[in-house]
Automatic annotation (TrEMBL):
This is FtsK domain-containing protein. The keyword Manganese does not apply. The keyword Aminoacyl-tRNA synthetase does not apply. Keywords: ATP-binding, Nucleotide-binding.
């Protein structure tokens, strides 16, 4: 009897709260107005205050979109810089319990503990927001957070899964045929290497006979060594000296492909019916920054030939090849993926950045670091969630939760294609494979 009375009272008060919450859901506009005022986003002009004006509000099944006219004297960047303040303001609330929460509530002798648990969960649940600009300031307030973990799904052709977006939790795919080069950034331990593994494993599964890899793993060989002996890997490097060999080899293959196309009177590999695609992937491109080189002194003989190249020269030459591949490679079937955790301007060669129409950035420490990868702020505002990133193409930006690959998938994928590379040492792995490529190039055009 006592139990029934307690539960009836509790359920009644919770239902009432849920009713108010339901009516308040999707209506954060008052809160937003208040936040704009308190955080100094409105502008004082003499006696007048120019406010951020709500023009349109629309409810969707994922949440609510607000469109604002920005007052004179403010820019989108001012609002983007206050994203955390806006999100915190939206989340200062009374707990919103909805009817569906009660459906999940277990009604047993632990009812009070269950309600307390539900209440605590709702209290810590956070609504996420996204800011964008298309002439109007757009603020999207999402009812549900993105999942924190997403499984790797199968892609198709040259389309690789890049993550779940908020809209209907739909997986989006990066099409390397449409956007050949990619820059990846993000602070340490947020998911760059994991995404590179997703890309490599997906491409091996989807295009086992057409994909070729030129891998440069400057993180001590821990990330990409799983692919060293698969037939798709043309060459692999773990040190800057080896990286130069790998890049030079990739560049030479690219030039020979250019020659083949020229003779065939074709402009692009697609026109020539060549299915092979080469992926040059560098995990921690920052290690190839010549400005950071300690050893800057070349040793040359009396004829000016190198006896020993300095670290600086090696890195400069690496960057030269990277820039050439980025500039000329797209039509020749070359794709370049450069990953870095460093947030300084010169870490990615300018030509590589300019030729990469896609950028994906995990959380970084500052707006400056975000600009290095995305040419704009935003990645510093991402929540501290591994795998959460901004995926940016020429015309749009979306937040994604990138897929998490397992050791099992990597093993299952690679073990099908392990070949005997004749005990070739790491730095010379490419020498043997290069011969294979010459053959593939000929058959590719026939
Ligand atoms: N998409 C993801 N979803 C969930 N967890 C992830 C995801 N990506 C990475 N992680 C987790 O974060 C850890 C670090 O990821 P990863 O090694 O890819 O980071 P990184 O950015 O390459 O770091 P570093 O630059 O220091 O090498 C992984 O071991 C994994 O546990």
């Amino acid at each position: 009897m006592i139990f029934e009375t307690i539960t009836t009272t509790l359920m009644g008060s919770l239902a009432l709260k849920a009713y108010f919450s339901k009516n308040a859901a999707g209506n954060d506009s008052k809160k937003l107005n208040k936040i704009f005022t308190l955080s100094g986003l409105n502008v004082k002009d003499g006696n007048q205050t120019l406010t951020t004006q709500l023009v349109k509000k629309k409810n969707y099944d994922w949440g609510t979109e607000y469109r604002y006219r920005i007052p004179l004297g403010r820019s989108f960047e001012d609002y983007a810089a206050k994203q955390k303040t806006i999100e915190a303001g939206i989340n200062t609330r009374t707990v919103k319990l909805q009817l569906k929460d009660f459906r999940e509530l277990k009604i047993d002798k632990n009812i009070i503990a269950n309600i307390r648990e539900l209440y605590t969960k709702k209290l810590t649940d956070k609504k996420e927001i996204e800011l964008s600009y298309d002439g109007m300031l757009i603020i999207r307030v999402y009812n549900e957070s993105l999942p924190k973990e997403v499984e790797l799904e199968e892609g198709k052709g040259w389309k690789v899964p890049f993550g779940i977006t908020r809209e209907k939790n739909k997986m989006i795919y990066h099409d390397f045929e449409k956007i050949p080069h990619l820059v990846l950034g993000g602070a340490t331990r947020y998911g760059k290497s994991n995404l590179i593994n997703c890309i490599i494993a997906s491409l091996i599964r989807q295009q086992p006979n057409n994909v070729k890899f030129h891998l440069i793993d400057l993180k001590g060989g821990v990330e990409l060594c799983d692919y060293q002996n698969v037939k798709q890997t043309v060459s692999i490097a773990y040190e800057p000296e080896e990286a130069l060999e790998v890049l030079k080899n990739a560049y030479e293959i690219m030039r020979s492909k250019q020659e083949v196309l020229r003779k065939a009177g074709k402009k692009k590999v697609q026109d020539a019916g060549i299915n092979e695609r080469h992926f040059v992937i560098i995990d921690e491109v920052g290690e190839l920054n010549p400005d950071e080189a300690v050893d800057k002194k070349d040793i040359k003989d009396s004829d000016g030939n190198y006896i020993k190249k300095s670290e600086k020269t090696i890195k400069l030459e690496c960057q030269k090849y990277m820039s050439q591949i980025a500039r000329l490679g797209a039509g020749l079937g070359f794709r370049q993926i450069l990953a870095t955790q460093y947030g300084t301007g010169d870490v990615i060669p300018r030509q590589c950045k300019q030729n990469s129409d896609a950028k994906l950035c995990f959380r970084v420490q500052s707006g400056t670091a975000s600009r290095v990868v995305l040419d704009g702020e935003g990645a510093e505002q991402l929540p501290e969630i591994k795998g959460r990133a901004i995926y940016q193409m020429a015309d749009k930006r979306v937040i994604v939760q990138t897929p998490l690959i397992t050791e099992g998938i990597i093993k299952e994928t690679t073990e099908l294609y392990i070949i005997d590379k004749g005990g070739a040492s790491i730095g010379s792995t490419h020498t043997k494979a290069r011969k294979n490529i010459a053959v593939i190039e000929k058959t590719g055009l026939s």
